[in-house]
Amino acid sequence: MSVNDSYTPAPINIYIALTKLWLQYVLWMRSFVISTKHDLPDLQFVTERLLAIPSDFARFLEPFYGDNSKEFERLFRDHLLLGTKFINDLKNGDTYAANADRLNWYRNADDLAEFLTRANQLWSLQRWQEILYQLLGTVENHARSRFNEKYENDIVIYDSMEKQVLNIADLMSQGSIFSITRMPFRR
After folding, report:
1. pTM for this structure?
2. What is the DSSP string of the chain?
3. What is the pLDDT of residues 17-54, one digit of tens each?
């Protein structure tokens, strides 16, 4: 049952759900980096779980943004695929491919930012680009730190990534809560 079928969710439930989804992003991205670096046997399963996050987001966002949630899902899946390719190229020392992947990853961040600002009038393109670029830079720094076996720094960077996604969850929650204030209340 979707949110629209039964009730309008309380703002705190929106915030909790989006916080959980963004924390899963950072958790599974970190797991991907670690499994990639150490060639762990769980890499396939970690990758599959990481790539399930866009569908989780789409299911949650559908009551607020309708069919636009599918576009978010596509863009976010592309974001993760580009990120995993970039991380693999870093691990393999393929600087040329990593630079090309980084460029595509940032282009995807621009596409995500443009999509989000079209989906919700509360959000600004500049703000979304800023926070997505920061996140990409932090994910890259995390991967480089892990690959260079700077584990203490890796933990500090992970903490920073976690703070960043909490800020992203705050921003997305505010916009989603704003969108439901325009929806009719249903029981």
Report:
1. 0.88
2. --HHHH-PPPHHHHHHHHHHHHHHHHHHHHHHHHHHHTT-TTHHHHHHHHHHHHHHHHHHHHHHHTTHHHHHHHHHHHHHHHHHHHHHHHHHT-HHHHHHHHHHHHHHHHHHHHHHHHH-TT--HHHHHHHHHHHHHHHHHHHHHHHTT-HHHHHHHHHHHHHHHHHHHHHHHHHHHHHHHTSPP--
3. 999 999 999 999 999 999 999 999 999 999 999 999 99
